[in-house]
Amino acid sequence: MFKATSASNETQASLAWNADMPDEPQLRPEIVSSSDDYAIPLPVWLKNCIDQAPNAIGESCPADSDTLLASAFDLAFRLHKGQFRVSGDPYISHPIAVADLLRDIGASPTVIAAGFLHDVVEDTSITLPELEAYFGSEVRGLVEGVTKLGGIHFTNRTEAQAENLRKMFLAMARDIRVVLVKLADRLHNMRTIEVLQPAKQQRIALETREIYAPLANRLGIGRFKWELEDLAFKLLEPESYKKIQQEVATKRSEREKRLHLTIELLKNRLINAGLNDCNIDGRPKHLFGIWSKMEKQDKEFHEIYDVAALRIIVPNLETCYRALAVVHDTFRPIPGRFKDYIGLPKPNGYQSLHTAVIGRHRPIEVQIRTQEMHQVAEFGIAAHWKYKEGGSPASGNTERFNWLRQLVDWQQEEGSSDHNDYLSSIKEDLFDEEVFVFTPKGDVVGLRKGSTAIDFAYRIHSEIGNHCHGVRINDKLCPLATALNNGDFVEVVTSNTAHPSLDWLNFVATPTARNRIRQWYKVSHRDETIQRGKDLLERDLGRQGFDTLLNSEAMTKVATRCNLKSTDDLLAALGFGAVTLHQILNRLQEEIRLQNMNQVSPETNAKVAQDISDRRDTLSPNKTSTKASPIMGLEGLDYRLGGCCSPLPGEDILGTVALGNHGITIHRQDCINVENIPIARQLTVKWNEKSIQQETKFSAKLRIEVIDRVGVLKDILMRLSDSGINVSDARVQTAYGKPACIDLKVEVKNSNQLTMTINKIRAMADVLDIARTGIN
């Protein structure tokens, strides 16, 4: 590596890397003789960069590309010195691989430099201002955009995933190049994932298939998309992966022979037509693509005819259509299989002619495109935009990222606190579009198949959807529920007095539209939920003195204890079911008692603690049940599960002892009922998962707000029945012109099963909202 400068030269040396870097002096190192001084394998292009610019390594804000890349690598190498991956490889191997992937797709030197440095802020002592001082604001911005969230506590993995994706999409909105580094980072991690624990492999692979592969597709980076999908497929569906891999390998020689004959025939026909500069090659389909088609079309492997395809690269646009004519003249085209993505490009910029023909005794797919179109198809935004050093992508291309703006807008709205809704919105927006329609200005908008004018309106902007009054499709007024078809011209008619209807939820096809409608309803009907909560509370407390009690300090403190800002928020939460009447009354009684009696005396708390200790000490082994207790720490003691929070296995719990030693109650640790219970009356307990029998079920109560229609309860119960969830109680409250409120008591094994149950119900079109409540 480097040698330190001598003390005699200290005054002449210029300051370079930070003094806190591991095992390095604060002055600039001497010039490197060659790239061989690094004791790790380096890509040829990186060796050339280092050998071309040895004198400049360590300088601030290097100007030329070779110096920038050599300096970025050198800093990453020194900062990650002594760090290793789980596999045991030096950590620097990961940034090198990321930078190499970015170079393969034609990313700019600035982006490649960010690839070298993308983990240094998170994993080393360097700060973002220091990084900016070395490499400028552009590299700093890219590194900051891909740096993972650190030092923030998340209550669950869903929240952590949602927050990390929010940060990434915000960074993408500022500079779309951020996602190039993120995708390269994910691809190399997937290539080396086998060293992780199986459960972690599954989680990362699922996120890759649901988020990162579709994201690569939306950005047009086919080279990343295919490999990410296949790597995730290998982990998530190992048996299917092996089977298809074997099928492809078994038929390879026969397929290659057939392709070779077809290519030779087409070459001769193209030359005879005067098209001498065309290149033809065979293109194998990636394994996940084959499996997806088999699943979607319910076919066996031998029934999928486009396991391999032909790609014809031509010199210019005109030649594309001339080559298509030759293909259709040589082979019989299959009706309905021609797609012109040149005249109507995909939203991600993809352009090509697709056709399917009957080849030599078998159908075959043919793609025709120019070299420039091929670069965009393979490398997406890295090939499509020309970046200026020190600037962002050309502003004229930003309309291609309306879907990204939608994601950023969604996360900034009130409903973004629901992490499940946000994740479903992301996944929906990243899926392959199947319907392409035009705005009145001729812009292309991609939507999920089955989408309607309402889905289109919300894709354009949430306010257009909220004020949608009518729609013209191909200059004809049509019902809002009309399904859109490819090539339709769609014009949304808006009105300031129009607002969403709950009926829209019966026909919209996209989670984005569904979430916007639900959110508008929750905000606009706040007065109704407040009144509903007020009626419930007044019915129990009585009318006399109710208004005084409602505006009292005690009620304000109850709202605060429920993590709500005001009494109105408390009533609204009660009206919907986010808090229960039982919870409010318990807290209200306690607050009034504390106002009158100040608080429980320390002597009483000490006596309760001693009583607990005495009961445990006097419990002899022969009195203990032979059956292990589901709660560790309470062996032989009587206890009950708190109805206020209904704890389930898998959730953090604690025990509390009532005054007078009237038994022990098990609460969730985040239950607001335990906030003011003295420490002396709290017991440290946890679930004994091994002692919980497989058939043991625990009760949980759900409050569901739905569109009031015939059969909605039956649909919910059928979905639960299909999932093996027993419903022990179901009650429905209805009011004319308002949504119905369904209270369900379900029996589940643990918290994970409850979460899956809630997600399944939330995904139903008629469901406006769902919340977990107490049993009592």
Task: Write a concise synopsis of the structure shown.
The protein has 776 residues and is α+β, with helices and mostly antiparallel strands.
Characterise the protein shown here:
The structure is a single chain. A hairpin with a 5-residue loop joins β7 (435-438) and β8. The chain is 45% helix and 14% strand. The strands form six sheets. Strands 1, 2, 3, 4, 5 and 6 form a six-stranded mixed β-sheet that branches. Strands 13-15-14-16 form a four-stranded mixed β-sheet, with no helix packed on it. The protein has a four-stranded antiparallel β-sheet with strand order 19-20-18-21, covered by helices on one side. The protein has five domains: 7-240, Orthogonal Bundle (Hypothetical protein af1432); 241-384, Beta Polymerase, domain 2 (2-Layer Sandwich), CATH 3.30.460; 433-524, Beta-grasp domain (Ubiquitin-like (UB roll), Roll), CATH 3.10.20; 600-695, no CATH class; 698-773, Alpha-Beta Plaits. The chain is globular. α2 (65-79) runs parallel beside α4 (109-117), α3 packs across α9 and α8 (157-174) packs across α19 (419-430). It is α+β, with helices and mostly antiparallel strands and 776 residues long.
